[in-house]
Design goal:
Layout: H1 2-56, H2 60-66, H3 71-79, E1 92-97, H4 99-103, H5 109-113, H6 119-127, E2 130-131, H7 137-145, E3 150-154, E4 160-166, E5 169-173, E6 179-189, E7 192-197
Parallel strand pairs: 1-7
Antiparallel strand pairs: 1-2, 3-4, 4-5, 5-6, 6-7
């Protein structure tokens, strides 16, 4: 009798243990599933937030239009029919001359460049201020320092420009030997970066 009772008790204990183990396994699987879904949801949310940020961030063209000191540049871009280029997705670096920078040019130069018959010349001047990749100021400084104090790079105009440091400031030397200083760096846009400069640079 006792043996039978012990057998029954052992059988019940085994059944309870199996049920308990199965319950724990099921709970563990549910927790793992929930954790996986939570991680996937967070990843989706991060991706969505990044996308929203990019969509909300102003383009280079929009930034220029919102900046009063760049109004001459905006007029020039529109006249050269290049404004749309900086309103589309991409990755550009624009060295943007201020109104005062354009004002340093010989009298009548800007008005002459804005004439319809000089559109191609104006396009070349503006494209010389653009690089077809994004270069942050920190990266530019590193390249200058690792290249014996100067770093040359190609512009969209097909001509080279040289960057160097002077008193800790980034300077640009154009094809004609003229210098421009970066007075405001790393203005971030959805399609690149803008560095504001205090002179208009020329390929030659």
């Amino acid at each position: 009798m006792n043996m039978r009772r012990n057998y029954i008790l052992n059988a019940m204990l085994c059944l309870m243990l199996v049920a308990f183990t199965a319950c724990n396994d099921g709970k563990k699987k549910e927790e793992e599933k929930a954790d996986k879904e939570s991680k996937e949801m967070k990843a989706d949310q991060k991706e969505e937030m990044a996308k929203e940020k990019e969509e909300k961030q102003a383009t280079i063209a929009e930034l220029a239009m919102e900046t009063e000191s760049l109004s001459t540049l905006v007029t020039a871009l529109k006249s050269a029919e290049l404004a749309a280029m900086f309103n589309e997705p991409g990755s550009y670096t624009v060295f943007a001359p201020t109104n005062d920078a354009f004002g340093k040019l010989p009298k009548g130069t800007v008005d002459n460049l804005l004439k319809p018959e000089n559109k191609e010349t104006l396009q070349n001047v503006l494209k010389y201020h653009v690089v077809a990749s994004e270069i942050m100021s920190g990266d530019l400084v590193k390249k200058i320092k690792s290249n014996d104090g100067s770093f040359s790079f190609s512009t969209v105009a097909g001509a080279e420009m040289t960057a160097m440091l002077k008193d800790g400031k980034v300077m640009l030397k154009d094809g004609a030997g003229n210098m421009a200083e970066v007075v405001k760096a790393d203005v971030d846009a959805s399609n690149g970066v803008v560095h504001v400069i205090n002179a208009v640079v020329m390929a030659e």
